[in-house]
Amino acid sequence: MRTTEPFVPIPEDVIPQMLSLASLKPNERLVDLGSGDGRIVIAAAKLFGVSAVGVDVRGALVKACRRRVREMGLSGRVKVLRRNFRDVSLRKADVLALYLSSYTLGLLAPKFTRELRRGSRVVTFDFPIFGWRSAREVSFTPKGWKKAHPIYLYLV
To answer: What is the domain range of residue 147?
Structure first.
């Protein structure tokens, strides 16, 4: 799978809403596919004390994120990989936190089904995973946006 998404940063104030909806616990592992500048994995480590793995194919974003992680003293909890989504195992993930289009989520859904353990959670902002039924859906209006957007929680 090639990069099909442009880099569009998720609004910062959405991230705590997503992570809270996923009921993230300190001993868990979060994975963000298409992690961009790392804001989700950094927030997960800082706010919830989890270990987090970000995955992106864009070298400049990965390099900048790794530098930011080091500067924040989070190297022990956050790992950022420059890889294709398909090459990363999700078997140890407790939570996937994603800001990807429904098209890309649809391409990844079979991988989620194959690799995620029972009880894992997938939380997405703005875009559903077609063919999956969400366990919960909340609406949230990011600062500066005019209307509320959905956050979906899926249970594996």
So the answer is: 14-155
